[in-house]
Amino acid sequence: MEQALVIGFALGFFVCSTLLWGFFILRGIVRVPPGHVLGVTRAGQEDAAGQESGRPFALVRSGTRLVMPFFQRGVLYRIQLAPISRRGLTVTRGGVPLLVCDLEAEVKPAKDADGLTGYIQAFGGHEAAEVDEVVGRVVEGCARHFLALHPADELLADPELAENRLRKYLATELEYLRIRLKALRLTMRPVSGTSRSTGASEFSMDGFRAD
Amino acid sequence: MENHLLYWILGGAAGFALAAFEVLLIRSLFRVPPPHKLLVVSGRQYRQGGKTRGFAVYGRPRAVMPVVERADELDTTCLPCTIEVRNAYLKGGVLVTARWLALVSITRDPALTPEAVERFLGRPLSEVAQVATETFEGVARGLLATADLQEMEHPDFTVRLAVEAEPSLQKMGLAVFHVCLERCGKEV
């Protein structure tokens, strides 16, 4: 009688334990699809003051990785950003419209481990569309700033030089967000007669009217 | 025979229960934050960064004592804040409306994170963004009053805006990633 109880208990424990751990281990096997990176939070060290040191998580860029159930946590992050395209941007300085620009840019998260860690910590939890929108707004804002700083004649005289300088400026600004600029195309044209009159707004960066 | 079968079943059920309890126990004992979040453990006195507080912040897995301790997560991702200042006076009494985009996040700097924990733990991210936006708006209004049209559009003005707002945001445990002017227009 007792023997049956003990054997039953041992068998029940073994079967249930195997099934549960098997299930969680199988669930912990993560394949990293292209355009994604797997961030795995892992245990680390603390210094004497109780502060953690070193990178808090491991990055897996491709292949398959076992994320230990309960002891690690893996999250798949998208590391592809949509191309940015802005048409008909009006750049102004001191209230005077200078240029109308078309801007196209290709951006990607940083490649090195530290940069990618920073990118994940900054944009990790956001929806893809939300990240694309934010990065697009940053690129647009930076481009306006840069172009507004320089005389329109100088920019129009040498568009290639202007594009290169803008590329450098954007690359530096995007580096703070752990994003790298892959490609940039800028086309500029002088403001036509009609776009100089912006209605109620005396000066505007793109015809924005305060109501 | 029937008695034996009953004992087998009883033993098996107890074994199942123990295995399930074991898994549940490990799950509740060990808390792991995702890479873009921090883990805040409270319930006892913790010594971290040379200070003793009622909570501790970790970016790594941590064992938590059930019942005694509690674990919460703090999101440290970037929050886009649209700073729109309407009807602000420039130097010389010119009335303008301007809009900036600021990217703000809860800092991961161990010295400043406790400030954010005290203010924003358990609050929605929209509330964090709203606090940052309002801080920026106040600073922007003050700065606009000292600038003219040209100065306002110059990138240096945006840098000044970020620099002036940073100390106030740091006191709340927030960090500024980026600020840029999006639009501006003169009120007529």
Features:
heterodimer, A: 211 residues, alpha+beta, 2 domains, 3-stranded antiparallel beta sheet, 6 helices, 30% strand, B: 188 residues, 3 domains
* CATH architectural group of the largest domain in chain A: 2-Layer Sandwich
> What is the fourth-level CATH superfamily of the largest domain in chain A?
Band 7 domain
Q: Proportion of β residues of chain B?
A: 35-45%
Low-confidence stretches of chain A: 194-204, 206-211
Biggest sheet of chain A: strands side by side, in what order? 5-2-7
The CATH class assignment of the largest domain in chain B is Alpha Beta
How would a crystallographer describe the biggest sheet of chain B? 3 strands, antiparallel
Q: What's the helix count of chain B?
A: 5
Task: Please give the largest β-sheet of chain A.
Answer: 3 strands, antiparallel
- State the end-to-end distance of chain B: 97 Å
What top-tier CATH class of the largest domain in chain A fits best?
A: Alpha Beta
- Name the structural class of chain B: alpha+beta
Would you give an account of this structure?
The complex is a heterodimer of chains A (211) and B (188). With 211 residues, chain A is of the alpha+beta class. Chain A has 6 helices and 10 strands, in the order H-E-E-E-E-E-E-E-E-E-H-H-H-H-E-H. Chain A has 2 domains: 2-78, no CATH class; 84-196, Tetrahydropterin Synthase, Chain A. A 3-stranded antiparallel β-sheet of chain A has the order 5-2-7, with helices on one face. In chain A, strands 8-9-10 form a 3-stranded antiparallel β-sheet. In chain A, strands 1-6 form a two-stranded antiparallel ribbon. The N and C termini of chain A lie far apart (87 Å). Chain B is of the alpha+beta class. Chain B has 3 domains: 1-29; 32-75, no CATH class; 79-186, 2-Layer Sandwich (Tetrahydropterin Synthase, Chain A). Chain B contains 5 helices and 8 strands. Chain B is elongated, with a radius of gyration of 26 Å. Classes of the chains: A alpha+beta (211), B alpha+beta (188). Chains A and B meet through helix 1, strand 2, strand 7, helix 2 and helix 3 of A and helix 1, strand 2, strand 6, strand 7 and helix 4 of B.
